[in-house]
Amino acid sequence: MRPSLMRSASQLLRRRSYSSASGQPERKVAILGAAGGIGQPLSLLMKLNPLVSSLSLYDIAGTPGVAADVSHINSPAQVKGFMGEDQLGEALKGSDIVIIPAGVPRKPGMTRDDLFNINAGIVKNLCTAIAKYCPYALVNMISNPVNSTVPIAAEIFKKARTYDEKRLFGVTTLDVVRAKTFYAGKANVPVTDVNVPVVGGHAGITILPLFSQATPATNALSDEDIKALTKRTQDGGTEVVEAKAGKGSATLSMAYAGAVFANACLKGLNGVPDIIECSFVQSTVTELPFFASKVKLGKNGVEEVLGLGELSDFEKEGLENLKGELKASIEKGIKFANEN
Ligand SMILES: NC(=O)C1=CN([C@@H]2O[C@H](COP(=O)(O)OP(=O)(O)OC[C@H]3O[C@@H](n4cnc5c(N)ncnc54)[C@H](O)[C@@H]3O)[C@@H](O)[C@H]2O)C=CC1
Ligand SMILES: O=C([O-])CC(=O)C(=O)O
Fold this sequence. Notes:
Bound molecules: 1,4-dihydronicotinamide adenine dinucleotide, oxaloacetate ion
Order of helices and strands: HEHEHEHEHEHEHEEHHHEEEH
Number of strands: 11
Distance between the termini: 74 Å
């Protein structure tokens, strides 16, 4: 055979074996709030994910443009845009994962809880539709305040009799992403090698990075360094809000973190073993009904909620200090869902 023919035959074989090896299950991912600051780059990143076969982009405005734009990228996922409430059902039907970055972001001087009044209602409506149109989907909740929006979602699903605690996740991956970056910078270790669990919740002192469990371990950091790293991780969102000076909160790093977490969920669904990420889930790790910790992901969502491991005295104190605020935020979400 001529070398050029041999080359094209082997290229074809490689392509064939690639496409049969990639024989992954078809997976539909829906993004609600897809035209927003997080939604747009997250749509881009999910379009690039080879595990996604269908990408459904929903928002109350702007999705036709985002969908047309993203759909021109030459990756396998088929993209469709949906706009307005009458298209929400179609957007959701058949979804394996629904990612929710819908709602208003903070401005300087606000806490995440200041977003409650607007975002609680948005999340409630979207979760009512999820219960109706794709009750078996894994829900990745990004909308703030996560410490309350996840309990709201749980109550809405309970009312619709579709609740399965294995399928509801508050996305706290950005806290992990930040903890890894800040630790690597301070400990002077390669950032791509770093792992740091972050537990608790997703607001201020409820964010508790466990630097005593960070890998690669280092003894180069003093107690003061650890305190400063903890504070920077807890205030990471505010750092971005202030730097953006009224133009919103973290969008690009959040889109990255959201894509990392959704990819982990997809791998778990597809049966890839040993997929572990931190997430805010229904939990018995502490006395609080929801808590972020390491979670093992599997074919049905949460396979196992992992414990906290050994904590330093500083972390033990942080854990006790966060419980009051986290409990109040959880209860606020539950009360809202049942009274509105
Ligand atoms: N979990 C986390 O770590 C993080 C959470 N966030 C939160 O994510 C949310 C979104 O932030 P951004 O994208 O920056 O805001 P944004 O304002 O840029 O985008 C929000 C999008 O949601 C859409 N939206 C509003 N109501 C909707 C509804 N009923 N259905 C569907 N879409 C609707 C808007 O049209 C807009 O396109 C905020 O609540 C923010 O606090 C932000 C960063 C990190
Ligand atoms: O700080 C905010 O409002 C947005 C957010 O949750 C984060 O960046 O962690």
